[in-house]
Design goal:
single chain; mainly alpha; two-stranded parallel sheet; 9 helices
Length: about 210
Amino acid sequence: MAVLTRVEAVTLPAKSVLCRKRIFDIVCSLLGLIILSPFFLVAALAVGFTSPGGVFFCQERIGLKGKSFIIYKFRTMQKDNTGLKITTAGDNRITPVGRLLRKTKLDELPQLWNVLRGDMSFVGPRPEVREYTDLYTEEQRQIFLVRPGITGVASIRFRNENDLLMASDDPNRTYIEEIMPEKLRLDLTYLPHASVSTDIKLILETLDVVIRT
């Protein structure tokens, strides 16, 4: 006889709280795109002129309600790179400009467009490729109850994820069996507390981590 395991359901905040969170995302992402437009131009020129392959990295990710969307980043890797869907510290596919953008998290800024469109939020679980989301358990799939984020609890906790993967003999297996389950556990703890105030705290914490490292 099959043993049925109980899935612990996540309770989301009230709709009004999530509505305010969405308004915060729209206003701040629009302001960010306007204010940071000069930097976007500089970064685009730096990426485009230092290595072939275009300015932006575009990839299908899985987000709200399990639906796919295209995520945008400044391209940080060589054109037509092959290999793992994850990166490790010292990955030789990363360009010199890309290494700087990754270290400062500036490669993520084009996702302001994703936030404005409604694909993403400033704060939430990081969106994964389908190869990984297909491995989620029923409980872990509750991640899809909210929009994925540019940063989040797990993103901060695993700021050194690339270093952890580099130390592994099998980075993909380490990610799937050790890192991904813990990231999902952390992100699920965020869901009941998703709000503008919580998001501001996590954004400030993210900035502090980036500056200190």
